[in-house]
Amino acid sequence: MKFINYAILLASLIEVAVSLPLSNFSQFPFDINPQNLTFAAVRAAPVNWPTPILNKNWTGVSLDLNATVDYGVSLIEKAAANGASAVVFPECWFPGYPKGYDENDWMTTHIADYIANSLEVGSHNWNKLLQAAAENQVFVAFGFSEKNDEAIYMAQALVDPLGTVLIQRRKLRPSGTERLLWSDGSRNGMQVASTFLGRFGLLECWEHFHPSMTFPMWSQTEDVHFASFPYMPDENDSEALWWESAEVNHAAARTYAVNSGAISIVPAVGRAVVYNGNGVLLAEMNASESMEENPILYVSGINATLFHDVNFNINSEASWGILEQIVDNYPDNIPRVTGTYVNAVTNPISALLAA
Ligand SMILES: *[C@@H]1O[C@H](CO)[C@@H](O)[C@H](O)[C@H]1NC(C)=O
Ligand SMILES: *[C@@H]1O[C@H](CO)[C@@H](O)[C@H](O)[C@H]1NC(C)=O
Ligand SMILES: *[C@@H]1O[C@H](CO)[C@@H](O)[C@H](O)[C@H]1NC(C)=O
Ligand SMILES: *[C@@H]1O[C@H](CO)[C@@H](O)[C@H](O)[C@H]1NC(C)=O
Ligand SMILES: *[C@@H]1O[C@H](CO)[C@@H](O)[C@H](O)[C@H]1NC(C)=O
Ligand SMILES: *[C@@H]1O[C@H](CO)[C@@H](O)[C@H](O)[C@H]1NC(C)=O
Fold first, then answer.
1. 204 - beta bridge partners?
2. Helices 124-136/65-81 angle, 10° precision
3. What is d(CA 302, CA 260) in angstroms, rounded to the nearest whole number?
4. Per-residue pLDDT tens over the stretch 312-345
5. 8 Å CB contact between 181 and 172
6. What is the best residue among 48, 56, 57, 110 to mutate for testing ligand 2's pocket, by most ligand atoms within 8 Å of CB?
7. Crossing angle of the two packed helices 246-260 and 211-218, in degrees rounded to 10
8. Would you please indicate which residues are annotated as catalytic (active-site) residues?
9. How confident is the model at residue 355 (pLDDT cuts 50, 70, 90)?
């Protein structure tokens, strides 16, 4: 049975696996070698973010969006100078992930300041990041706490080397208690961008655990996946809670890499890793390494001529047919009731400030 499955899989791969000819890259105006791309994963902390990694004491500490955007731009410049074609930032790095917001008095003492330092699309700071991508001729994928008039969102953007925004999304359903702070995104944000280097996609943190978020991405066949986590301790850190441990989170990122077959760049403040599409560790830097001396993890040797440039594979495990099969085969003993969990949640800023 297994043999037959592999035969079908192989047949479908042969059908879709049309490697990109080198001439495809001739439109690329910049000085890169598509057979040996370098990508950069930021592991430095945002400005004023309490360190070490698991320190959640925010007493007397305020995040600073302006200073963090300037620091982020300097990291983009540094990575580009070191040959990177893409620079990827952790989740909510602008202005910083408020670790421990649900364990102490952060909500009453810091929420107004956090909203004020969240990033507005189209703002001066937003434009600085787009401009940094263009001036340094790199892709930039960044995680930010997005603010609009109504609410804040856990957002991500992918900008190309011309400064054009290719993907702008909000986490579909913030995880756990995050959902009391940030509002839900929409499914339309789960899109893979077809770029002149390959198909790039992004998700953040626990989205990598949830089939409603992973499945639509796997269906779109990514070549490179940017998996942003907020912060990551080293393995075996006895201070880490189970849900923030490297073991748990990197298990999700690694499983994602195998299911998507995409090279997965996994930035986080602290420990950053890169897996190839077989789930093999290509690069790592431990949380115990200095974030000042080594703010960026690099991975080289990415051969874009091996990318497939296929929008979807209807004969794969992540396809419309399989989705239908999940519905059709859903066990009869489970009631066909929608429940309230999937309803979109919006936390108005006025309510957050009144809490
Ligand atoms: C690929 O690029 C890296 C970083 O620039 C370099 O160290 C390495 O030697 C290159 N590999 C090949 C096969 O050219
Ligand atoms: C948190 O930091 C403040 C200011 O540095 C300090 O006074 C306080 O003792 C710290 N709290 C804990 C639990 O370490
Ligand atoms: C951030 O920078 C903008 C533009 O330079 C400025 O108007 C604003 O006052 C700054 N915010 C803070 C908190 O310094
Ligand atoms: C990272 O730390 C682990 C132990 O937690 C160790 O086995 C590994 O060699 C370290 N890796 C690097 C690159 O220092
Ligand atoms: C992890 O921690 C346990 C107990 O604290 C220890 O026995 C084990 O050797 C550690 N493993 C690594 C890889 O450091
Ligand atoms: C990149 O992949 C192509 C196949 O598409 C291969 O011919 C080439 O040798 C690879 N380049 C490197 C540096 O490994």
1. 228
2. 10
3. 16
4. 999 999 999 999 999 999 999 999 999 999 999 9
5. no
6. 57
7. 30
8. 91, 171, 205
9. confident
